[in-house]
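@channel sequence for tomorrow's demo:
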Amino acid sequence: MRLRTLLLVLAIVLLAAFAALNVDEFTRVSVLSLGFTTIQVPLGLVMLLLLVVAVVVFLASTLYMQSTNLLETRRYARELNTQRELADRAEASRFTELRNYLEVQAIAAQQRNQPQAPYWQSALRNNSRPCWTASSSQTTPCQRIWASWKTAWSGVRAITTTAVQTTASTPPWFDAITLWGKPGLS
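structure tokens (generated this afternoon):
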């Protein structure tokens, strides 16, 4: 039990013991005035009865407040559970939306890469090397890339040769580029 409850029970027991020890004084008749009349009743019993009524009223109000708070707490707990379930459903739906979006993006990326895929897939299925095993009449993607690089480098060589002829002193990195144009290095 709580400390407050223990103190309340102890106070009630002490009051009952006090009343039991002094029952003769509590039951002695006195004249009491009610304002419009007078009556003869034991004053101690009247005061004891008023004390018991006050304690019962306070206990009843405490029980009412506790039960009201308990019912309100249960209602809030139910509402909290429903809100938590709604949030869990919303989060799950967001995850499914994200998964669907990612799947759509993956399919779109796969379809964008699809035109190049059949050639490479067939080459891999045949376990062949597409750049080196093509016949002389076919041009492979590797050969096309190599040809474009050779064309680009020949343009760079032409520019560097012109630059070397027009400037008296050349920077060191031009020497590396001009070596590319030497016979046997291209």
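heads up for whoever presents: Strands lie at 29-33, 38-42.
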